[in-house]
Design goal:
4-stranded antiparallel β-sheet; Glycosyltransferase; about 525 residues; globular; 6-stranded antiparallel β-sheet
Length: about 525
Amino acid sequence: MRKLLLVLMTLCVPITAAQATPPDQILDNMQQFGFNYFWNEANPSNGMIRDRNAPGSLCSIAAVGFGLSAICIGIDHGWITRAQGASRIQTTLNSFWTLPQGPAASGTIGYNGFFYHFLDMNTGLRGGGSELSDIDTALLLAGILDCKQYFNGADPTETSIRTLADQIYQRVDWTFFRNTSLQGLMIQWKPENGFNTAVWKGYNEMMIMYLLAIGSPTHPIPGTDWNTYTSGYVYGTQFGQTYVQYGALFTHQYSHCWIDFRNKRDAYMAMPIHGPSDYFQNSRKATLAQQAYCIANPGPKGAGFPDPAGYSATLWGLTAGDDPASFYAAHGAPGPGTFDNGTINPTAVFGSLPFAADICVPTIQNIFDGYPALWGTYGLKDGFNLSRSPDWYDTDFLGIDEGPIVMMIENYRSGSVWQRFMQNTDVQNGMNAAGFVSVVGVDDHTPPSTGQVELRSSPNPFTTQTTIRFDLPQAGRVRLTVHDVTGREVARLLDGWVDAGHHFATLRADHLPSGVYWYHLDTGKSRSEIRGVLMR
């Protein structure tokens, strides 16, 4: 408690530019505060977690999924004991296994293994007339399966967690939600009027849902349904980035909270016309494109709101979240689903840390230090909007936004969630059946855009050292850095004034483990990057 009070006191002291909070301290604080949300905003008697920290809030099953993984992270950091975490998780899973299921409009938690989007915090039964949700069930299941991997002990509680996890996942009848003629998963079901028969397709957060459905050991859908999902993709170039697009960043983050897509390609991503690339790199490109969009669009956001939004290279982050105009909205840009009214939701930046730490960390530092009105019990509140007069600041924290903050900080720093979740046999089977293959190598060469300096490296792959070359059209300050797949800088090869002409630098890999690395060249006027592979 003393440590927590000291941290809260720190948050209440104004910070000048000269006293910028160290990034590691920000990440430490935000991760622990996010964990506290899931621990404190839960009903300990049944494990239900509030959608938001507001009086009368219902339980969001997606928030429960994020919260289950957050508890595992909390144990690893020593915020609770393993026994405390196991007890809470066993209680939660027992509720989702034992509470009644059926087609009735009330008195049930779900139907055919699926769960209603929102549940009563006390009874655990359907709340607010909400829909039976396949995607929110999938996010809940992801947290449940993560717990199965985490709690691998032989004691009765941990054994029970694994048994309950299998029972809950294997009960889900994915074929109930499948539209056989459209060959995909339908959007929702309600006991009052049945299905919305449209199917989920086009890039969004549904990747994890399709993969869990395809990998089900009891009621799977065909692996070919993955092709239905990808058939709706919009692929093209936005602000210098060529990628599968959607505006709101949460669509590029939710599935990645659990699934490690690095160096794994499905048939779509393996096509030469698409890179080839992978979904990890796709999320990086989406993040870079959004930052570039915000830099280019910092002004007012509509009639009646003359103040500029104030976006910059270190002030951006458009995703689903609270909003001064419509309570909750899916903010995002560029690409399909673009909606920008000046609202920034900080979870957007934290959720992209593993993909683009080079631009996310400075932005996090700026938001944390520069906007103290955002600070509160669980870290940074859900959103703010500087284009309103007066500036608008949210009052709430949301579970589905706290989740990516906690999890993606962990994946950025240790990759521990990815490491254990990817060991799950059903997850592996789902990815295999959907056509994913693991690859070792680099993306095909893509010509640099106009004004961009081209990087080349040889040999690639390499075993001990490689040479990185570039031609600088005019003299200037240059920084050439090497980053691992989590975005961490592992080497700085050049950092200073360089004359125009041909240049090279040698990366010696004596201290580096095998894996994929990114070489970043920043000239102040352009940023270039290429990928290299170290194979020992």
